[in-house]
Design a protein that fits this description.
- By secondary structure, this protein is α/β, with parallel strands linked by helices.
- It has 2 domains: 162 residues, Rossmann fold (3-Layer(aba) Sandwich), CATH 3.40.50; 157 residues, 3-Layer(aba) Sandwich (Rossmann fold).
- Helix content is 42%, strand content 16%.
- Strand 11, helix 10 and strand 12 form a beta-alpha-beta unit.
- Helix 11 crosses helix 12.
- The longest helix is centred in the C-terminal third of the chain and has 27 residues.
- The radius of gyration is 21 Å and the shape is elongated.
Length: 340
């Protein structure tokens, strides 16, 4: 029997090296244990469709991003209404686009199944669509925490995220001028997607000795840098379920997070490391407290450690394969009934 063919539409490319691409790449790896998988930035893709293996349409389409993948999902639904599709919802989908963008709203209706990356996102969905939605936590391999030297020269607070408005890097930059604890450095890893924010990062680095902007780094290098940090900060205004939270938790690094729905869905309502979005002073106070109060740092670490089992690769793979298997089995059953 020929293996089913799954097509993943990821508007982000490998070159972008952002959370959406990491999700698409990881899902492709999980699915290839059972299926043929193609990743491209659209469907149909003229380059890919020239491949002899793709002369027939895929058995299932997975689309990342309701608005940006809307043309692909619409084309698939129109040409193959009997074939299933999955829409993986991002932060900008849940907390912006599905409220205002007609193409994103259409994507919600057209997809056979919706996937959220954390449970708090369910509240953002229209009630009639929640029945076809499920939560699949993303995952990351566990890295053994770095052993801190007895006299740490620097306490690095790392932010990982490209410079764009949704990630609110300005709050992280402003916090650099407000932190008072000794040895603290605020280290930002991420590419310059918006020129004004890049200029702000350069100006902050020149004015604040505590702040360093390293630009974009390869994923493996970023994880190693994160693993050796004292804390990870995420300042975003919107997140669907941030990969970087998972990577920090799975490296034994406590998180300081903006108090938004997507971060609460990842870390839990009782997490002690939240600060109001955009509040640089509150972030600076949390950094000072975590550096100066070892009990508080240990408490954050324990809370993060308790969440780590949710982010195990085996759990994500099992949930994804179960969803895909069920959709393809339902399609097969329908086809058999139609033949009778």
């Amino acid at each position: 029997m020929t293996a089913h063919h799954i097509w993943i539409v990821s508007p982000a490319s490998a070159r972008a090296n952002n959370g959406n691409w990491q999700s698409a790449s990881r899902w492709a790896r999980f699915l290839r244990t059972r299926y043929k998988v193609t990743i491209s930035q659209q469907w149909p893709d003229p380059d890919e469709m020239g491949n002899a293996a793709h002369t027939r349409p895929p058995d299932l389409l997975i689309a990342l991003h309701a608005r940006r993948s809307a043309p692909s999902l619409a084309a698939y639904a129109e040409q193959h209404p009997d074939r299933p599709s999955i829409l993986l919802l991002t932060g900008t989908d849940l907390y912006r686009d599905i409220e205002t963008d007609a193409s994103a709203q259409r994507s919600l209706r057209q997809a056979s199944a919706l996937v959220l990356l954390q449970p708090a996102g369910m509240d953002a969905l229209p009630s009639p669509l929640r029945a076809k939605a499920s939560v699949i936590f993303q995952s990351a391999p566990t890295l053994r925490p770095a052993r801190a030297p007895a006299a740490r020269r620097h306490a690095d607070i790392v932010m990982v995220g490209h410079l764009r408005a949704e990630k609110d890097p300005l709050t992280f930059m402003r916090a650099a001028g407000l932190v008072t604890a000794a040895k603290v450095r605020l280290v930002h890893i991420g590419g310059a997607l918006e020129p004004q924010l890049a200029e702000a990062a350069q100006a902050t680095a020149a004015a604040q000795p505590r702040y360093r902007w390293l630009g974009a780094l390869p994923h493996a290098a970023t994880r190693q840098r994160l693993k050796r940090s004292y804390l990870m900060a995420i300042t975003s205004h919107m997140e669907g379920g941030a990969n970087v939270i998972i990577e920090a938790v799975c490296s034994g690094v406590p998180v300081l997070a903006s108090d938004i729905s997507g971060n609460r869905g990842m870390l839990g309502d009782d997490y002690a490391g939240y600060f109001p979005p955009g509040d640089a002073a509150a972030l600076a106070r949390l950094i000072d407290r975590a550096v100066q109060d070892q009990d508080f740092h240990a408490h954050l670490r324990a809370q993060c450690d308790a969440r780590a089992p949710l982010f195990a690769p085996a759990a994500e793979q099992a949930a994804l394969l179960e969803l895909v298997d069920n959709l393809l089995q339902h399609k097969t059953n329908q086809g058999n009934q139609n033949e009778q």
